[in-house]
Amino acid sequence: MHPLKNLRTAALAAMAAVIALPALADPPSHAPAHGWRKKNDPYYVGYTGRQWSDDYGIRGGHCDRDRVGTALGAVAGGAIGAAVSDGDDRLIAILAGATIGAVIGHEIGDRMDDRDRACFGHSLELLEDGRRVEWVGSTRDMVYALTPDRRFERDGQVCRHFTLVRTIDGRQVKKPGSACRYGEGDWRMVKA
């Protein structure tokens, strides 16, 4: 037999063996909830103990505004608070209330839309202290970065301090603030 033919046969056998090997690793922690995670760990538990069916990428450090928009669209026509109702597998927490601009400043709060407020609220719900999450706002040149901080209690409500940074056209505005949880996933700004 010709030496090149033996080499080609050996190479094809080696490739077939490699291709047939099963994947043995678990998915990384930032991977979407498909396969193993969806079957074995289907819920994302917030620090208050509430179980959420999706983290919208928040625990991986980036809130997915498109998926957040889909979840919010599922409850269009109703109050935003309906987004956290039981029975819907597209649950999401949200930062609610009209005082956002008054508490963290108009230069940040006035440009936030429902998707931004949902990324904000769900991050307060799911992130550990000191973990940062980012998302692109309603325009590509606007980026938000939120870092929840210490927890505290006020009038029986669970609350968190945070730092929010908004970058627009390369200019950063950094604001500390506080929010408290009123009901299932309903976060509202408070003055510290």
Mean pLDDT: 75
Strand content: 25-35%
State the shape.
elongated
Number of helices: 6
Q: Give the domain tally.
A: 1
- N- to C-terminal distance: 83 Å
Strand arrangement, largest sheet?
3-8-7-6-5-4
- The residue ranges in which pLDDT falls below 50 over 5 or more consecutive positions are 77-89
- Order of H and E elements: HHEEHEHHHEEEEE
Question: Helicity level, as a percent range?
Answer: 25-40%
Largest sheet: 6 strands, mixed
Question: How would you summarize the topology of this molecule?
Answer:
Blueprint: H1 3-19, H2 35-40, E1 44-45, E2 51-52, H3 65-73, E3 94-96, H4 100-104, H5 106-109, H6 114-126, E4 133-136, E5 142-154, E6 157-168, E7 171-181, E8 186-190
Parallel strand pairs: 3-8
Antiparallel strand pairs: 1-2, 4-5, 5-6, 6-7, 7-8
Helix pairs in contact: 3-6
